[in-house]
Write a structure and sequence with these properties.
The complex is a heterodimer of chains A (152) and B (784). Helices cover 12% and strands 42% of the residues of chain A. Chain A has 152 residues and is mainly β. Chain A has a five-stranded mixed sheet with strand order 2-8-7-4-5, with no helix packed on it. A three-stranded antiparallel sheet of chain A has the order 1-3-6, with no helix packed on it. Chain B is globular. Classes of the chains: A mainly beta (152), B mainly beta (784).
């Protein structure tokens, strides 16, 4: 019987050794994503070709922001409102990557993009992607309509 | 086990002392019917039973010895006999099913590995649509769900290509590498499942790291019997309606089985009216997830010849399914795509179709102390994703044929396995085997995701089992694998033109338009395993095993480059990846005392180069691409334990399983993050009450259960933290005697309080979709 007890205790000991791991690491790990609050454009905003589109957003992170990307692409993913270009308009695309100097915790984006006259009338996604210094990423989209209101 | 030892009846007759003795005996089944052609062994002496179940061993010396009784389809029985005191023994053999009847949580014989057998009835008791989901109450197993009808299994947080699923000895191939692809096996047709936790590298090779789910659909019917089942089932959470019919017949040597199943389900219900995906609030009309309906149909035909020395079984199966994807969160959030069209059963774009076809021939040549096995199999997994033509590149036109076929994968796999096993005396069993696996993957469709590839894997293995004593078994294994992997490069000229027209440099355009590169790799791997089982005491048993494991990098990990539309991520392959390697070890400690049984299984896995997706911090130039994620390797650790127990008090039974898992990387310079899809600490408990049989009801029981999971805050980078939850369920089941019909009725309710919760391992978790709401499910099984 004593022998069994010894064996049991040694097993128990091994089991504990198996699973006991200090969890000291998680406090230093950054898994918190940055936040993006898009103020302009607003969802379903209509934009006239030839006008300028204001991009305004607040980026925040609890440790350090690193970079962001602004892009505009056709939202023509087929589910609705497919328009056919009747003229020589071209689909509008925009993309720009910005480094955020000094790794602040908060950064405001505020600048304008000019929409060309010949931008094809369509629904577009405006996307802002943001990465913090640890590589955590978040993204946010709004849908806009580039074109003349009567065609919407 | 108490029950068995009681049932082994030794009749002691008067003793006449001779130096040479004769031992007579009889072998019967649980119903007292004599068993013909059982093999009786005692060292060099052996005998075979006659048609009346009797046998005789002659000229045996005095002493106390171990008699082994074997018969196919029955559990091998060892009994201790004293000669000359004993001259006649009667032995009762049980079929494997009978042995397992009462067992839910522990194995019935000391095995050197951690295996849990699940009978087809238990799968039906826990039926939850897919096989992986139906196995979720097995300690250590989680289901990674893709909507309400499809899921893939995970063991200890390891899934995808880090576990192996085998059917009739052949590894089930599918599109394991993607999160939205399920396991193409019909849960209602599985005859027997064994979940092996821990490394299975020796017998199964690459991928069998977290464990192996072994499905056996080659159970041979009893001679001269015909039987079958009709199963009808339905559930409220997705208005599923399904039926399954199976039929089997055997005369003396030939048998035949036919199984058909079909299920059709509607959009599933969730206890929420809106989901929040990428900061966009997407409405959920009438609590239904738009476009998550689907169907699945399967056919399984099997024919076989069985004799004492030879058996051959041919199986042909086909499973076909169509599953809708929730349109609101397929890529960029889309509010317009989720509008209610008044039809919950239709499947619109985007959706996937899968067809899995498989032929297996398995052959066995048997002698009393040796056996040859040869298995050959061909399987084709054909998966298509359909989505209304769309492109982020303005210069791409829809194809003229199948304009809405976004992705089309055809994976052909050929397997051949031959092994020879033989016994040396009663205490050694040796197996030598050779396996070959050839895979070819072809792709088409207007999008590009997965490279085409050819892979050839040749392996040799040997295994030695040594039954040191009736209490101790040792197991040694070694395996050598040679893998040759060739991926086919693909240059996307549309993307190249698009990038150039958007003012990108030629270098950047070329780098991104090369969606996959020609990679040719060969890997040579050796693996070793050691296992030990020991019965310390009649109540205490334990096993211990340690082994190396490996996984060859997939085509995706080696050479893909581009946006993974499902994960919505730019993933970049790395041709310099080494084979993922590790060591794992575990202990299974079982205690059984009368009405109490419990199993504790602590484990540890160490990876010397775990493959993971590393965020690079550099933005992709591709439209809708965030940062680029590159496949990298780091050391990693997974550890934890499972604890399962069962306690009976008269008619009450309490079953519970508890899981704890901890994992992290060990040498990531960016920080030692946890691994993705970590199972949170969780507890499942079920209390059941068994009724006494009456004239019209048999084996009736009612039960209530609960599942609790803690919050999972230990997440890999760019995963979401998942809050904890508690859900409740209840059910009843009974076999009812109505004249000739004896239907088994199973009624169960899940998530009774319609709790809104998330499953950390669900495909839909990443897109913020909660788990299924309240579900009431009815299954009627009519045997004939």
């Amino acid at each position: 019987m004593k022998n069994i007890k010894t064996q049991l205790f040694s097993l128990l000991f091994v089991s504990i050794a198996f699973v006991s791991c200090s969890d000291s690491d998680s406090s230093e790990l950054d898994t918190q994503k940055p936040t993006i609050a898009i103020q302009s454009p607003t969802d379903h905003q209509e934009v006239e070709p030839g006008s300028s589109l204001n991009i305004k957003a607040l980026l925040q992170d609890e440790t350090a922001l690193a970079s962001y990307k602004v892009e505009i692409h056709s939202a023509g993913d087929g589910h609705e409102h497919r328009t056919v270009a009747l003229d020589n308009s071209v689909p509008f695309t925009y993309e720009n990557v910005f480094q955020i100097e000094g790794n602040p915790k908060s950064h405001e984006i505020d600048y304008s993009i000019s929409i060309p006259e010949n931008a094809k009338e369509d629904h577009y996604h405006v996307g802002i992607f943001c990465i913090d210094a640890a590589g955590n990423q978040s993204q946010q989209f709004v849908e806009i309509f580039i074109g003349h209101e009567h065609n919407h | 086990m108490m029950r068995i030892s009681i049932l082994i009846i030794c009749l002691i007759h008067s003793v006449i002392v001779f130096s040479q003795n004769t031992l007579k005996g009889k072998v019967v089944d649980a119903n007292g019917m004599p068993l013909n052609k059982c093999h009786i062994d005692w060292n060099a002496y052996c005998a075979t039973t006659n048609s009346d179940g009797t046998f005789e061993l002659q000229n045996i010396p005095n002493g106390s010895f171990n008699l082994r009784v074997k018969l196919d389809g029955f559990q091998t029985q060892d009994i201790l006999v004293n000669v000359p005191e004993t001259t006649f023994v009667e032995i009762v053999l049980f079929t494997e099913d009978e042995m397992l009847d009462e067992l839910v949580i522990s194995t019935n014989q000391p095995k050197t590995y951690n295996g849990i057998s699940v009978k087809s009835n238990q799968i039906k008791d826990n039926f939850a649509g897919s096989l992986a989901k139906s196995l979720e109450n097995v300690a250590g197993v989680t289901a990674m769900e893709i909507g309400s009808g499809v899921s893939k299994p995970m063991i200890r947080g390891l899934g995808f290509t880090r576990i192996a699923v085998t059917e009739n000895g052949i590894k089930q191939e599918g599109q394991q590498w993607g999160a939205d692809h399920g396991l193409e096996i019909d849960a209602l047709q599985a005859e027997e499942v064994e979940v092996i936790k821990g490394v299975g590298a020796i017998a199964y090779g690459s991928d069998a790291i977290g464990g192996v789910i072994r499905i056996n659909n080659e159970k041979i019917p009893q001679e001269n019997t015909t039987s079958g089942n009709v199963i009808l089932h339905g559930k409220t959470v997705n208005d599923a309606l399904g039926a399954s019919v199976n039929f089997q017949h055997r005369n003396e040597n030939w048998f035949f089985k036919a199984k058909f199943s079909g299920v059709d389900y509607a959009d599933f219900k969730v206890p929420t009216s809106q989901v929040n995906y990428l900061n966009t609030k997407i409405p959920i009309y009438n609590h239904r997830m738009k476009n998550t309906a689907g169907d699945e149909y399967s056919v399984y035909l099997q024919g076989g010849y069985v004799s004492d020395s030879f058996q051959s079984i041919l199986s042909v199966s086909n499973l076909k399914s169509k599953i809708g994807f929730f349109a609101g969160a397929h890529g960029i959030p889309s509010v317009g795509a989720v509008a209610d069209d008044g039809n919950y059963r239709d499947v619109g774009f985007p959706y996937q179709t899968v067809n899995h076809f498989k032929v297996t021939s398995s052959n066995k040549w048997k002698k009393p102390h040796s056996e040859w096995n040869a298995i050959f199999s061909f399987q084709q997994n054909h998966r298509q994703e359909w989505s209304l033509f769309h492109s982020h590149y303005s210069n791409q036109m829809a194809p003229s044929v199948n304009p809405n076929l976004e992705l089309d994968f055809v994976l052909n796999t050929l397997d051949s396995q031959v092994n020879y096993s033989f016994e040396t005396g009663l205490d050694h069993e040796t197996t030598f085997g050779i396996q070959q696996n050839y895979q070819q993957n072809n792709v088409s469709g207007y999008s590009y995701l997965l490279p085409e590839y050819n892979r050839n894997n040749l392996a040799f293995y040997a295994n030695q089992q040594w039954f040191v004593s009736s209490k101790t078994t040792l197991d040694f294994g070694a395996r050598l694998d040679y893998i040759d992997m060739k991926t086919q490069g693909y240059f996307d000229s549309i993307l190249y033109d698009y990038l150039i027209s958007n003012g990108k440099s030629e270098t950047v355009a070329k780098e991104n338009a090369q969606r996959s590169s020609d990679v040719h790799k060969t890997y040579l791997q050796t693996n070793f395993a050691f296992g030990l089982s020991y019965e310390m005491h009649s109540k205490w048993k334990w096993n211990f095993n340690v082994g190396t494991n490996f996984r060859a990098p997939t085509a995706m990990e080696l050479s893909a480059n581009g946006i993974h539309h499902g994960a919505f991520r730019h993933e970049k392959g790395n041709p310099n990846l080494k084979v993922e390697r590790g060591v794992s070890s575990e202990i299974g400690l079982t205690f059984e005392n009368g009405n109490f049984k419990s199993t504790l299984s602590p484990y540890v896995y160490y990876f010397s180069n775990y493959i993971f997706l590393k965020p690079t911090g550099t933005f992709s130039v591709l439209p809708h691409g965030g940062q680029v994620y590159e496949y990298s390797q780091s050391k990693a650790l997974i550890t934890g334990f499972e604890y399962a127990f069962q306690q009976k008090w008269n008619s009450f039974t309490l079953n519970a399983t508890f899981e704890y898992l901890y994992n992290k990387q060990l040498d990531n310079p960016k920080g030692n993050y946890p691994l993705p899809f970590s199972t949170p600490i969780n507890l499942f408990a079920e209390l059941s009450y068994a009724f006494k049989d009456s004239e019209i009801t048999k084996q009736s029981k009612v039960y209530i259960n609960t599942k609790w999971a803690s919050a999972q805050n230990r997440i890999a980078q760019n995963e979401e933290k998942t809050p904890g939850y508690t859900i409740f369920g209840a059910g009843l089941q009974s076999e009812i005697n109505i004249g000739k019909l004896k239907p088994v009725i199973r009624l169960q309710g899940n998530n009774l309080f319609n709790t809104k919760y998330y499953n950390h391992a669900s495909f839909y978790r990443a897109i913020e979709i909660p788990e299924l709401g309240r579900n009431i499910q009815l299954m009627i099984q009519i045997p004939f």
